[in-house]
Structures are given as structure tokens and as C-alpha cells.
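Most newcomers find our protein records easier to grasp once they have seen one. Nothing more is needed to start thinking about how sequence determines fold. Here is such a record, shown just as it appears in the course material:
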Amino acid sequence: MDTQAVQQLIEDILTKLSIEDAEVHYIADATHPIFSVTTKDAKKLIGTQGETLRALNYVVKRLVEKRQQLDHVSFLIDVNRYQQERNEELRRKAKMLIERVRSFKTSVEMEPLNAYERMLVHSMVADDPEIETESHGTGPVKKITIRHAESIGTAARSESSDLDTRDAQLFS
């Protein structure tokens, strides 16, 4: 992926959206590259509960795939650290719920999450033999149930231990 071309595309889109004084910086991250946007018009780009930012990420990714003739690209556009802070908060909540499940050997259901957020939670327990996660629901926003392995039967355990492949495909 040509990161300079992606950065230029983001800058062009921001100009067409009349976003004033926006700066776009590329951050090479181990999990996924980040194009960090700093602007005074953050509310306009983020939207209600991040909906506009998710849409911007989707549109830019599809444009990059088409222009660079790639099957799949994986990066994140973040505005004024909104997504990074949301992910940190999600990790804190998930960690607390995982410890609750571990202590009480029970199940808890999280609030609806998008595919990327579900992937973050699934990955937090991927190597934990005591804790299992399962995505359920319809559409792009689904819920995750976090379960203690002892609290479910063997048949359900084999189904819920695999990462929902649709989540893995959708997050990037």
C-alpha cells in the first residue's frame, strides 16, 4: 500500500469536506497503520458515536483498494485520537468484565460493538483457556458474550472458541 497516496487522498477528501486546518500524519503501528488527523473540526468528522468516522474509514479504504488495485487494505483513520481513546476505554471495560467472568465463573454480555472493536475483545482472550468469547446478533454491530469455559458445555465450547471469521474480515 502506498501510504503517501493514501495520506494525499485523505487530505483531498478533507479539503472537499471543507475541513479547515487539518493535518494528516502516518503512524506505522504493529496492529495496523494509522492515519492520524488533527483538526479543529473534529466533531464534524467523528459524528454521533463515531458513525461519520467509521464511514470515512470505509470510503477511503474502498477508494484505496480500487485505485491501488488491491484486494484488501488494513489501516485506521483516527481524528484527534478519538478512536485510540475509545479502544483504550473498550480494553479497560473488557478487562474488567473478563476478570468478573473469571472470578464468578459466569457469563456477561457487552454492549453492541463494531467489527473492529469485537476483534479487539476476541484477541484479548485468544490465548486464555479459561475465557471464551462469542459474537452474536445481525448486521455490522453485534454483541459479544464473554464466558468462563467451565460454565458452558463441550459442544458450545468448540463453537464459541473460534474467532467469528466475519468479524475478522470486517474489522480491517
